Amino acid sequence: MKQTSLIMILCALVFGCKNKINTEQAKPDSAKLIYPFTPKYSINWQPGDEKNALIVLNCLKKYVAGDVKGALENFADTVEFIGDQFYFKGKRDSLLTILAQTRADMTSVSKNFDSWMTTYYPDKKDTWVTLWYVEKWTDKKGKTDSLYYTDDVLMKNGKIISYDEKIRRYPPSAEKK
Prior knowledge:
Shape: globular
Number of helices: 4
């Protein structure tokens, strides 16, 4: 009985170690890859601290609820905000004025997330949160619309220092005659 148990344990160890080695060998060595383009930013990243995603998601939740001041409480004192045909770099309070007016023009806003990801770039010491979602809104005239967003948010010391949103417009629906 003892010999059977010992043989089973040895087999488990041998096969377990062999599988781990094969898994590691299956990974491509990115240092040996030759890319056809040179990236402007680092491609050396690892999973980041999800607390950063929570900060960004809470910011957006407050914006949806109409609390623009609360939405910007985790923005740095000086911030960059990039949007469709919009660029702002300056004090958080000035951005608050702009976003408060934009939000005031809407009676309702919702965001439906596909996913988000937090990444850390050790060579840059940067943490980015990337979000993918659909935003729907109704303006004060009753018009409803939506856009698909991919946002990249740069975090430093738990503060948002850059918010870069990219949009995809949906094609107009075919009107029935």
